């Protein structure tokens, strides 16, 4: 095992955007990292110390568990899991390809559940641990063209709170981070050019959106509270974002 004094942090979707910002932030705080995403080269390019980058699809439960076992052999047990991997495919339900709904449900919901399943039993047994799920303001209210995406993020809010109650007496924390509009490549997954154009116009009307580093700072703040303090949810958005 490497000579590290802080606990292992696992981050999914760590190749770009919020996930990459999380990796840099938690690494700067001295934590060894397991970075998981499909694009391993992008994670390795971060060049973070005491980090292990593994190409994993979060819908693959077995692959997640194998990667975690490998990282724990090197850095010790998982202290914090950040479920960040997600896709946003916007569209009207009557015209959107149902395959896009399946993709979002599999990654945004099943991916989160798979990550939790991989670490929760051990956290309960050790009576310590933190799971941070990256949701969205779209998990608290609805938006035009967001029906299926909102469904996945409302699910993340619900499952996080449900599990938090179940494991509270085991001293395990579950935290929801719900960002508003953030400058990431998330919108690029949407296939409708009209929707993407409208989203860009909305961002310009607000005078810009928040940076991934703002979300990472919120997660680090929640993590760094004493283990007997659970910041259950943080909602952050551009000041000018009205909905």
From TrEMBL:
An example Gene Ontology molecular-function term: oxidoreductase activity, acting on the CH-OH group of donors, NAD or NADP as acceptor
Pfam families in UniProt: adh_short (PF00106)
Gene3D superfamilies hit by this protein: NAD(P)-binding Rossmann-like Domain (3.40.50.720)
Keyword Transmembrane helix: no
PROSITE patterns linked: ADH_SHORT (PS00061)
Keyword annotations of the record: Oxidoreductase
Domain of life: Bacteria
UniProt-listed InterPro entries: NAD(P)-bd_dom_sf, Sc_DH/Rdtase_CS, SDR_fam
Family designation: Belongs to the short-chain dehydrogenases/reductases (SDR) family.
Name of the protein in its database record: SDR family oxidoreductase
Species of the source: Shewanella septentrionalis
